[in-house]
Amino acid sequence: MLRKILIANRGEIAMRVIRAAHELDIETVAIFSEADRGALHVRNADQAYCVGPGPAARSYLNIPNIISAALISGADAVHPGYGFLAENARFAEICADHGLTFIGPTPDVIAKMGDKATAKSIMHDAKVPTTPGSGIVATPRDAANAAKKIGYPVMLKATAGGGGKGMRVVRNAAELEHSFATAQAEAEANFKDGRLYMEKLIEAPRHIEVQVLGDAAGNVVHVGERDCSVQKPSHQKLIEEAPAPALDNKVRARLHEVALAAARAVKYTSAGTLEFLVTGDDVYFMEMNTRIQVEHPVSEVVYGVDLVREQIRIASGERLSFTQKDLVARGHAIECRINAEDPQNFAPAAGTLSECALPGGYGVRVDAHAFAGMQISPYYDSLLGKIIVVAETRDEAIRRMECALRETRIGGVKTTIDVCIAVLRDERFRAGGVTIDFLPALVAPSVGLPGPGS
Amino acid sequence: MTLASRRAGETGSGSNAPRVDWDLTLERVRQAAEFCASSGLVRYRVEEGDLEIEVRRRAATPSAQPVAVAEPAPLAVPSPNGSATHSRPPAVVKAEFVGILRLARPAVAEGSIVSDDRELAYVESLGVRNPVRSGAAGRVVAVHVDDGEPVEFGQPLFSIDPAA
Predict the structure, then answer these.
(1) Nearest CA to B28 among B65, B64, B8, B54?
(2) Top CATH class, A4-88
(3) How confident is the model over A49-59, as a mean pLDDT?
(4) For position A117, what pLDDT does the model report?
(5) ipTM of the assembly?
(6) CATH class of residue range A206-443
(7) Contact B99 A192 (CB under 8 A)
(8) What pLDDT sits at residue B22?
(9) CA-CA distance, B11 to B32, in Å (whole number)?
(10) For B22-34, how does the pLDDT look when each residue is reduced to its tens digit (9 = 90+)?
(11) What's the burial of A232, exposed, middle or buried (CB within 10 Å: 0-12/13-18/19+)?
């Protein structure tokens, strides 16, 4: 088993990894930026090293200082969390070069899945259904030809993309040239890689993803699916649940099956997620995330497994601690992300938390790093924490979540609490099976967000 | 020292021009420059994705300052007009790298008088010696670290009284 893990991250995920490691009697090393000196992960790790100033490029992305901190602290492994360096194949390689175990899949798999065009072709070969699309389209003319073949509407996407950046919907040939230029510029600016490809636009799909785990011995299991269709206009997720509600069991079984096939095709080790677009009975592979995800707890609480603990065990060379038939879903889980954001437009809010009272009770889990007096710095994402509830039925889970959200008191900054409550009260959400255009329509300025008292 | 840094394909203009992450780029240039100087190389070139950095140093001046561009966060309180006053607090020289601190020989101690570019120590990080310079002339009033001690970014290493 590993002895000491450096966590190359901050916020709630750093706390999540520290907890899992300490339960396994593994020591932890935190890294932090000058803006995070008072952060919870710094106080809870066994050791902590400042690796740079506030801007992430010089601290949480500062590979030489992070590796140096790992070496001088005597760590034998690095957990990257999510975001920052989690899906940076080069970082995983550098860890290995310095004798550090990277807690995640191999650099080769990270690189292949990180390049969307490569990922898609691997999945296609593994008989995983993919959206009709093109290879790299280098010029507007290439794009026009590809679009004609695929049929409008189409989506232009950055091969290095994520988080909705470098993505454009194109409904007809007239829009193509302008959309191509803007998507390319956005991809250049955000990912330093302006390459684009094109896919058929699946209108108003659901976003359903499947959690997988694989070990070095070749054992692969799925840990069910999560429905992440409640997304902000930027495609960032706000509310996730497991299992996916109002989903035909045949479709569910098919998702699990193709996710396993995909994980086996790349000999996946560690925890990973296959994201699919689902419309009616059709499922299309979207991308594979080669990291632990923000919303992993909903799977944990319905399956009763600790995914981060499994990641650590797998990285230590151990086998999965369960087989597929041990994994049985029980009940229904929902997660709400509490972000320091303006609920009307999801613009990040900075400031000091004047008050922070988090909920609790039976079936309520809180993975957070917020505390009263905390400074919210503008350098990082706005996630303050996540509230996860589990109950026997979905209706009970919705009720429990609403109670938990009403208990939550965050002062000093605007948060997403009210918009989460509005979603939970919406009849379409309660019926189950909303599509990704649900939340953008709910918060559209012309509609106006219902207040918590309405 | 001359520096050349460019991004391949950076030929666009106007709103389509790729946005360069200057923080990151300057940091890379600075690291390259310091590595070049500390390793005694006269020319050092590194490629990282589409970022290429080439650092050159005149061989005739081995004492060339490695930090030619992208001054790091102020290492010490600057004395703009050269007339330090007694009310000025000591300048604190901080670590810019995470690594193991090695005091330069002969080691400075409390009371040592140093020039403004004296190499006081270096931080050994991933096999690279990153020099720590005094940044201000004056008297060393405190040495906050021991030889061989691990140091983190921003850790105070030396306090220098510029008035002395």
Answers:
(1) B54
(2) alpha beta
(3) 97
(4) 80
(5) 0.84
(6) alpha beta
(7) no
(8) 67
(9) 24
(10) 667 777 777 777 7
(11) buried
Helix (H) or strand (E) holding B38: helix B22-39
- In angstroms, how far is CA B75 from the centroid of its own chain? 8
Q: In what order do the strands lie in the sheet with B119-125?
A: B128-133, B119-125, B99-103, B150-151
pTM summary value: 0.81
The residues pairing with B133 across neighbouring beta strands, listed in sequence order, are B119
A291 is a catalytic site residue: yes
Residue B78 lies inside a defined structural domain of this protein? no
Give the pLDDT confidence score for residue B55 in this predicted structure: 73
Q: Which of A168, A291, A337, A394 is catalytic?
A: A291
Distance between A161 CA and the closest CA of chain B, angstroms: 15
> In this model, does residue A2 exceed pLDDT 70?
yes
Residues of B with Cβ-Cβ distance to A70 under 8 angstroms: none
Average pLDDT, integer, range A212-228 = 98
Closest CA of chain A from B97, distance in Å: 6
Cβ distance B153 to A64 less than 8 Å, yes or no, reads: no
Extents of the domains making up chain A: 4-88, 132-200, 206-443
